[in-house]
Specification:
The complex is a heterodimer of chains A (596) and B (358).
Chain A (H helix, E strand, L loop, with lengths): L16 H22 L8 H4 L1 E9 L10 H17 L6 E5 L3 E7 L4 H8 L5 E13 L39 E4 L44 H9 L5 H7 L9 E5 L5 E7 L4 E2 L3 E8 L6 E7 L1 H14 L9 E5 L2 E4 L10 E8 L1 H12 L6 E10 L4 H27 L3 H26 L5 H30 L4 H33 L2 H33 L2 H4 L39
Parallel strand pairs in A: 6-12
Antiparallel strand pairs in A: 1-3, 1-14, 2-3, 4-7, 4-8, 4-11, 5-13, 6-7, 9-10, 10-13, 11-12
Chain B lengths: L2 H10 L11 H21 L3 E2 L1 H4 L1 E6 L6 H12 L3 E5 L5 E6 L3 H15 L7 E5 L4 H26 L2 H25 L2 E2 L1 H28 L11 H38 L3 H32 L3 H20 L15 H4 L14
Parallel strand pairs in B: 1-6
Antiparallel strand pairs in B: 2-4, 2-5, 3-4
Subunit structure (chain B): Forms a complex with SecD. Part of the essential Sec protein translocation apparatus which comprises SecA, SecYEG and auxiliary proteins SecDF. Other proteins may also be involved.
Keywords (chain B): Cell membrane, Membrane, Protein transport, Translocation, Transmembrane, Transmembrane helix, Transport
Family (chain B): Belongs to the SecD/SecF family. SecF subfamily.
C-alpha cells in the first residue's frame, strides 16, 4: 500500500478518520444515554396516532343578538381559536365547525393540553368598565382580613389573567396578579403606581394590597338601580359557581355586577358601569418585560378609535374619588384588574402584576387574536382514541421495515463489500433520528403524526442516496485506474459538493414549509429538515471516516471481487501516462493494483 | 449472459448506453401527453377532497360493542368515502365521513343504525364544516410558491439560470403528474396527501441536482475541445450518473413501495395510502424527469448560446473531415479535462458510441 502523502489530503476529517469516528460514536451514545436518562424513550405521538382531547364548544348569542350565530361569525371564531391553540405551541390542533352552532377542537395528548383547554373557549370579550362599587370578600372564611388599611390609596387587589375558574392550576402558575399600570404614550411613565405582589405564590394571608372592609362605602350607581344593588348584595364571589356566572351573558351597554378572580385568598365584587372601551379597540397586545421592575407585563396598544375612547374614560375617572376613579378590565365577565386612574391616558395601557412569562403570553395571545365574535360554552370535554387506530401505525412501521429490508438487500447485492459501510451508516441515521425525535417531544412539543412517520421512513432511504453518490464517485475514480486510497480521497470533495447541494435543496424545502405552514404540515416539515441535517452529519462524520479506514484494509484496498470495488468489474482502464495537461491536481499513484 | 446482464455490466463500467439527448423529442412527447392527461383528468373529474377540505358529516353513536374497525367498514360501505372512527371516553363512537350532504347523511345514519343495532334517533348526525384544511391548503400553496422562487434563485447561483429553469419545469411536471394520478385513481385528497406532495419538492430535485452537478463538471471546458457538442456532453453526463440515479431512486422507492403496497394493501384505504401514493408517484416522476426532461432541456437551452453553436459547428466540421478521411471517430485521443470517467469506459470497446450524431 502506498504511504499516505502528507499535505495531499484535503482537510475535513480525512487526516484522522479514527478520531472522528470515535467522537461521532461518543456523541451518539451520549444522546442515546440522554434519552434513556430523561425517560422519554419514545417520540410523542400526534393526535392521529395517540388520540387526545376533543372539546365541543357551543356558541351562545348575547340576549337579543341571536342572529349573531351565523356562518361568518362561526368561521371567524374557528380561525381565531385555531390561532390561539396553535399559538400555545400545541401543534396540529384541529378546529372545525360542527352543525350550526358548535365548534369542535381536537388537541393532541401532551404537555399543553390543560392550558389549551383553558384558552380554547375563552371568548376574550374584553371590556373596560368604570367601577361604581367595590367590596372585598375573603375566600376562606377562617382567614380574617387583616385590618391594617393599606397606606396607599391606589393599589387594588388584582386578578388572575388566566380567568380560569376555581378548579384550575396545579401550582398557581397562572394566578398572576394583574395590577394594571396605565402609562401615557408620551412618557411611558407608570401613572397609577401598582403595588407589586411580593410573589405569585398564593398564600392565603391577608395582603397589604387589599382594601380593608372598613373603607367600604357602597355608593349606589347614579341611576339608582335597586335591582343591581340587590344583585350586588346577594352576590357571593367566594362561590365559584356564582363567580363564574356573575359577569357572563351581559350586555356591554348595561351596568353589571362582576367578580374579580380570587387573589391571595381574597376576591372583590363590583358594580360596573356600561363598557366604554372593548376588545375590538385593542390593536395588539403582547407580553414584555417591564424595564423598571423586571416583571412580566402585557402591553396593549389601542386603535385610533380606541385611544379616543380610552382618553375620555380615563380623563373622566381621574377626577373621581375612590372607588369611582377605578376602571375594571373585564375579560369574559371576570375582572382581571381594576386600577385607579390619576391622569388622562391615551394610546397604551399595560396590565402588570406578578405574571410569569407564560401567563403574560397567554393574555397577550388572547387579546391580540381578538375577541371571538360569539360567546362559547364548553359543552363537553372528551378524550378520544386515535383517529387512525394503532393498526395504521403498525402497518406503517411493518411496511417501512420491509421496505428498509429491501433497501438493505439491494445495497448488499449491488455494493457487496461496500454495504458494510452503507448499513452501519443507515443504522446510525435511524438511531439518531429516533433518539432526537424522542428528545424533541418534551423539548419543543414535537409530536409525531403518521405523515411524519412516513416522512422519516422515506428519509432513511434518502439518506442512502448520499452514500450512493459517494460510492459511485469512488467507483468513477477506480475506473480511471486509481488505486483505492487515492480514489477514496479524490472522490470525497466532489461527492461532498453534490451531497451538500442536493441536501441544501431538500433542507430549503423543509425550512420554507416550516416557516409558512401550520399544524400537521409544519410538524412534517420539521421531520424533513431534521432528517436532512442528520443525513449530512452521518455522511460527514461516519460514512466518510469509515470509508477512509476501510480503504486501508487489504480486502478493500486491493479491490477484492467482493469488495464492490473490483477494478475489473468496474471496467477500469490501465493507468495512463498522464499528459502534462492533466488539470486535476492529485494524480493518483501509478502502482498497479495487484490482482488478488 | 443475458442481455440485461450485459447492460448492467456496461452501466457498471460507466459506458454510454442510450442517447437521451438525441431521443429527447420522444420523451418530451410522452411527458406532454401524460401532463395533458393529468390536466384533463383534473378538469373533468376534479379531485376527491377529504373531510378536512370540504367538510362532511359526523355521527355520534350511543355506547356500543361494535369495534372501531367494524364501524369504519360500515361507514365506508354506506358512504363510499373514507371514514374516520374514534372512540370517545365513554364508549361512544364518533364517525366522521367526508364529502356528503344532508340527504346522504340521513341515509347513512339509517344504515349505521341498522348495522349497529340501535334506534336511529340515538345516533346524532351533524354536518361538519371544512376545518383547518383550507388554511393548510392555502399555506401549502404559499410554501410551494416561496420554495420555487428560492430554489430557482439558489440553483441559478449554484449552477446557472438555464439549469434553474429546467429544474423548475421538471418540478412542476412532477407535481402535475402526481396530482393528476390522484384525479384518475380517485383517492381522497387529505392532509396526508398534501404532505406527501410537498415532500416531493425536495426529493424530486435531489436527482436533478445530482445530474446537473455532473453536467456542470463535464461541460466546464466544453469550448476548449472539438470532439463533443454540448448535447453530447449532456448525454455523457446522464449516462455516467444513470446508475446513480437508478440506485438512489430504487433505494428511495423501496420503503415507499412498502408503505403503499404492503401497508395500504393490508389495510385498504387510509392515511398511509394517501401519503405513500403521492410519494411513490412523485418520486418516480422525479427520477424520470431528472433524466428525460431536466437535462435535455438544459441542453436545448444551452445549444442556443452563440458559443455552443460555434462549438457545434466546429465539432461537426471535424467529424465530417474525419469521416472523409475514413477515420473512426470512436477512437479519440484522450482528452482528460473535458471528458473524465464517463467516456473512458468506451475505449477500445465495440460499444456503440452514441455521440449524438443525428
Amino acid at each position: 500500500m502506498a504511504a499516505p502523502k502528507k499535505g495531499r489530503r484535503p482537510a475535513g476529517g480525512q487526516g484522522r478518520p479514527g478520531r472522528v469516528l470515535v467522537l461521532f460514536l461518543i456523541a451518539m451514545v451520549a444522546l442515546t444515554g440522554g434519552m434513556f436518562w430523561s425517560g422519554h424513550t419514545t417520540p410523542r405521538l400526534g393526535i392521529d396516532l395517540a388520540g387526545g382531547t376533543t372539546i365541543t364548544l357551543k356558541a351562545t348569542a348575547e340576549p337579543g343578538k341571536e342572529s349573531a350565530v351565523n356562518e361568518t361569525n362561526m368561521n371567524t371564531a374557528v380561525s381565531i381559536i385555531e390561532r390561539r391553540v396553535n399559538g400555545l405551541g400545541v401543534s396540529e390542533a384541529e378546529v372545525q365547525t360542527q352543525g350550526r352552532e358548535n365548534i369542535v377542537v381536537n388537541i393532541p395528548r401532551g404537555t399543553n393540553e390543560e392550558q389549551a383547554k383553558e384558552q380554547v373557549g375563552k371568548t376574550a370579550q374584553l371590556y373596560f368598565r368604570p367601577v361604581l362599587t367595590a367590596q372585598t370578600q375573603a375566600m376562606d372564611p377562617k382567614a380574617t382580613p387583616s385590618a391594617s388599611p393599606s397606606g396607599s390609596p391606589s393599589p387594588k387587589p388584582s386578578a388572575s389573567a388566566s380567568g380560569a375558574t376555581a378548579d384550575k392550576g396545579k401550582d398557581g402558575k397562572d394566578k398572576s396578579t394583574a395590577t394594571p399600570k396605565a402609562s401615557a404614550t408620551t412618557q411611558g411613565r407608570p401613572v397609577s403606581e401598582a403595588l407589586k405582589a411580593p410573589s405569585p405564590t398564593p398564600t392565603p394571608s391577608g395582603s397589604a394590597s387589599k382594601k380593608p372592609k372598613a373603607s367600604e362605602s357602597p355608593k349606589p350607581p347614579a341611576n339608582g338601580e335597586a335591582a343591581l344593588q340587590q344583585k350586588f348584595a346577594a352576590l357571593d364571589c367566594t362561590d365559584p359557581k356564582q363567580r363564574a356566572a356573575a359577569g357572563k351573558a351581559t350586555k356591554a351597554e348595561e351596568p353589571i355586577v362582576a367578580c374579580s378572580t380570587p387573589e391571595k385568598g381574597f376576591v372583590e365584587k363590583y358594580v360596573l358601569g356600561p363598557a366604554e372601551v372593548d376588545g375590538r379597540d385593542v390593536k395588539e397586545a403582547g407580553a414584555a418585560i417591564d424595564q423598571n421592575s423586571g416583571q412580566w407585563i402585557v402591553n396593549m396598544t389601542f386603535t385610533d378609535a380606541g385611544s379616543k375612547k380610552f382618553q375620555t374614560i380615563t380623563g373622566r375617572l381621574s377626577q373621581q374619588q375612590d372607588p369611582m376613579n377605578r376602571f375594571a378590565i373585564v375579560l369574559d365577565g371576570e375582572v382581571t384588574s381594576a386600577p385607579s386612574v390619576r391622569q388622562t391616558l391615551s394610546a397604551n395601557a399595560q396590565i402588570s402584576g406578578s405574571f410569569d412569562q407564560q401567563s403574560a403570553q397567554d393574555l397577550g395571545n388572547i387579546l391580540s387574536y381578538g375577541a371571538l365574535p360569539l360567546a362559547f360554552d364548553t359543552q363537553s370535554v372528551d378524550t378520544v382514541t386515535a383517529a387512525l387506530g394503532g393498526e395504521q401505525l403498525q402497518a406503517g412501521l411493518i411496511a417501512g421495515a420491509i421496505g428498509l429490508a429491501l433497501v438493505v438487500l439491494y445495497l448488499i447485492v449491488y455494493y457487496r463489500g461496500l454495504s458494510l459501510i452503507a448499513l452501519p451508516s443507515l443504522l446510525a441515521s435511524a438511531i439518531l433520528t429516533y433518539v432526537i425525535m424522542s428528545l424533541l417531544g418534551p423539548a419543543i412539543g414535537f409530536a409525531l403524526n403518521l405523515p411524519a412517520v412516513c416522512g422519516a421512513i422515506v428519509a432513511i432511504g434518502i439518506t442512502a442516496d448520499s452514500f450512493i453518490v459517494y460510492f459511485e464517485r469512488i467507483r468513477d475514480e477506480v475506473r480511471e485506474g486509481r488505486t483505492l486510497r487515492p480514489a477514496v480521497e479524490r472522490a470525497w470533495p466532489r461527492a461532498r459538493r453534490t451531497i451538500l447541494v442536493s441536501d441544501f435543496v431538500s433542507f430549503l424545502a423543509a425550512a420554507v414549509l416550516f416557516v409558512v405552514t401550520v399544524g400537521k404540515v409544519q410538524g412534517f416539515a420539521f421531520t424533513l429538515g431534521l432528517t436532512t441535517l442528520l443525513d449530512v452529519v452521518v455522511v460527514f462524520f461516519f460514512t466518510k471516516p469509515l470509508m477512509t479506514l476501510l480503504a486501508r484494509t487489504k480486502f478493500y484496498g486491493d479491490g477484492h471481487p467482493w469488495s464492490g470495488l473490483d477494478p475489473k468489474r468496474l471496467g477500469a482502464k490501465p493507468p495512463l501516462r498522464r499528459t502534462r495537461r492533466a488539470a486535476s491536481s492529485a494524480a493518483g499513484p501509478v502502482d498497479h493494483p495487484k490482482e488478488a | 449472459m443475458s442481455k440485461r446482464d450485459r447492460l448492467s455490466a456496461r452501466l457498471n463500467r460507466g459506458e454510454v448506453v442510450y442517447d437521451f439527448i438525441g431521443n429527447r423529442k420522444i420523451w418530451y412527447g410522452i411527458s406532454i401527453l401524460i401532463t395533458i392527461t393529468a390536466i384533463v383528468a383534473l378538469a373533468v373529474r376534479g379531485l376527491n377532497m377529504g373531510i378536512e377540505f370540504q367538510g362532511g358529516a359526523v355521527f355520534t353513536t350511543p355506547k356500543t360493542e361494535v369495534s372501531v374497525s367494524q364501524a369504519q367498514e360500515f361507514a365506508e360501505e354506506a358512504s363510499g368515502h373514507d371514514a374516520i372512527v374514534q372512540q370517545l371516553g365513554d364508549g361512544k363512537l364518533r364517525i366522521q365521513v367526508g364529502g356528503i350532504d344532508t340527504e346522504k347523511s340521513d341515509q347513512i345514519r339509517t344504515e349505521l343504525a341498522e348495522e349497529l343495532g340501535v334506534t336511529e334517533s340515538t345516533i346524532a348526525a351533524e354536518l361538519v364544516g371544512p376545518s383547518w384544511g383550507e388554511q393548510i391548503a392555502t399555506k401549502a400553496w404559499t410554501g410551494l410558491g416561496v420554495f420555487m422562487i428560492l430554489v430557482v434563485l439558489y440553483l441559478a447561483i449554484a449552477f446557472e439560470w438555464r439549469m434553474a429553469i429546467a429544474a423548475l419545469v421538471a418540478l412542476i411536471h412532477d407535481l402535475t403528474i402526481t396530482v393528476g394520478i390522484y384525479s384518475l385513481v380517485g383517492f381522497e385528497v387529505t392532509v396526508g396527501t398534501v404532505i406527501g406532495l410537498l415532500t416531493i419538492l425536495g426529493y424530486s430535485l435531489y436527482d436533478t441536482v445530482v445530474v446537473f452537478d455532473s453536467l456542470k463538471e463535464q461541460t466546464k471546458d466544453a469550448t476548449k475541445q472539438t470532439r463533443y457538442t454540448y448535447g453530447d456532453l449532456a448525454n455523457i453526463s446522464i449516462n455516467s450518473t444513470l446508475i446513480r440515479s437508478i440506485n438512489t431512486t430504487v433505494v428511495a422507492l423501496l420503503p415507499v413501495a412498502g408503505l403503499l403496497f404492503i401497508g395500504g394493501g393490508v389495510l385498504g384505504a387510509g392515511m398511509l395510502n394517501d401519503i405513500s401514493l403521492s410519494l411513490f408517484v412523485g418520486l418516480a416522476a422525479g427520477a424520470y424527469s431528472s433524466i428525460f426532461i431536466a437535462t435535455p432541456l438544459v441542453a436545448d437551452l444551452k445549444e442556443r448560446e452563440p458559443a455552443m453553436k460555434a462549438l457545434r459547428k466546429r465539432v461537426l466540421a471535424k467529424r465530417a473531415s474525419a469521416a472523409a478521411k475514413g477515420e473512426s471517430v470512436d477512437e479519440p485521443e484522450s482528452h482528460e479535462d473535458a471528458v473524465p470517467a464517463a467516456v473512458v469506459g468506451q475505449r477500445g470497446r465495440r460499444g456503440r458510441s452514441t455521440d449524438g450524431r443525428r
